[in-house]
Amino acid sequence: MAPIANTTTGQLQGRERAGTLLFAGIPYAAPPVGDRRFRPPAPPEPWTGVRDATAFGPQAWQGNQMLGGMFSQEAPDNNEDCLSLNVMTPACDDALRPVLFWIHGGGFEGGTGATPWYDGTAFVTRHDVVVVTINYRLGALGFLHLAELGGEAYASSGLNGILDQVAALRWVRDNIAGFGGDPDNVTIFGESAGGMSVATLLGLPSARGLFHKAIAQSGAAQFLLHPADAAARTARFCEALGSTDIDALLAAEPAALLRAQAGLNAAMMAEALQPGSHGARAGLGLPFQPVLDGVELPEPPLDAVQNGSAAQVPLLTGTTLDEWNLFGLMAGGDIDPDKAVRRIDRMTDGRGADVYDVYASARPGAAPSEVLNAVITDIVFRVPAIRLAEAHGEAAHPTAATRMYLFTHASTAFDGKLGSCHALEIPFVFDSIRRRGVDFFLGHEPPADLAADMNAAWAAFARTGDPSHAGTPGWDAYEPTTRVTMEFGDERRTLADPMGAERACWDGLL
């Protein structure tokens, strides 16, 4: 018999899949179309009868995402009516299980909660938790700042993608008990732009109380636009679109918006590599980011966390060892040491030679491109994660523990050139390493014990706020004096201030 669940807007029919119940394509907000384009999400609309929830909903409008194919993702439909979520659960009963709420990455321009890597079967069947994955608005439709063009009604348009996530969390609060989940034990987790979203939600007043634990993977609180910068990008976007009229923006075809996005993206990426640019520190050309609008987001999330906004929320955060290798491999090309130093100069206010020497000394025999990749890894990912952990630990201690991890397992794909690159940890967290096509990214025979241990750690954290279990012994809280970090690699072990000399390079800079 097909499973039926009750929600505040009507009944849903799901399906059984691999020992779990799946309810897919559930609307958590009204379609953001027509006059609702660029507006905050509105409550979902009720329906009569039993709604089919056996197929994933369309993804947010986005351009061609090369990483989607790498993630074993078939090309789904793009649609502006994209605000849906998916629930995987052991049973629709009253067991009040922990809830894991996943926010996908993709640079705030791509991705979907339906990606096969995000299959929650292992969490559900092994650890008796409920998994929720979501879609949210991306690119211009989710993050274009229109306060100057559209007035008060669009004051928070630069945060719409984040506000969509809040709407999905409200849906979970109001409905997840009907799917066997506990609305008072919700853990948000995400990677890359999803991790940045998690960090933003930690500082967002309207999200307070909607989640109780947080995991930020390879994304922290550093990607944020101030209104003046956001307005300048909006002006450039409108120039590419060919109109600055709010009515024209409301009427534009999504394909036209995507073309304007692509033009802005290319221009900003080129500028990020020019002399005088701070490159990675400026977001490496990432056009769409959460905007500090002064309304929904009154202060930078890192400041809010420092000031105690998440003092009651246990935090787990970390990165992979070689994040930038993925992007460096796509860029290709060898460089000499002088060129590497010049690039680092642009990111460090002229300290390129000193920073290069520190990183090169720790990597005897490494090519200049490898040293540069390590530097950018730390600028864009690892040091911001450390800053988030420091801010949270200072404000939350001893209320809620902060924990740090470092993923070091190296892919054997592409002749080992990826190393432990960006996004590599995701199929280990979900233990989806056996999914079709994953070996394209992970290489052959990825270690099953590592996937089992990471999956168990994330589930333990969701249940209790402590990721420690038999496979991760001695995982103490992260403190500035000890900087205890759990390594997920060929073995699971705790490290004290890993790569401390490199971390110290950024004191006063990042």
Description:
Residues 276-283 have low confidence and may be disordered. A hairpin with a 2-residue loop joins strand 3 (15-17) and strand 4 (20-27). The protein is α/β, with parallel strands linked by helices and 510 residues long. The chain is built from 18 helices and 14 strands. Helix 2 (121-127) packs across helix 17 (448-464), helix 7 packs across helix 9 and helix 12 packs across helix 13 (352-361). Among the domains are: 4-59 and 89-227, Alpha/Beta hydrolase fold, catalytic domain (Rossmann fold, 3-Layer(aba) Sandwich), CATH 3.40.50.1820; 314-334 and 368-504, no CATH class.
Write the layout of secondary structure elements.
Layout (H helix, E strand, L loop, with lengths): L3 E4 L2 E4 L1 E3 L2 E8 L22 E3 L13 H5 L13 E6 L7 E7 L17 H7 L2 E5 L4 H5 L3 H4 L9 H16 L5 E11 L1 H10 L10 E5 L9 H15 L4 H6 L2 H19 L28 H6 L8 E6 L4 H7 L5 H11 L4 H10 L6 H29 L5 E6 L18 H4 L9 H4 L5 H17 L19 E5 L3 E5 L3 H5 L6
Parallel strand pairs: 2-5, 7-8, 7-9, 9-10, 10-11, 11-12, 12-13
Antiparallel strand pairs: 1-2, 3-4, 4-6, 6-8, 13-14
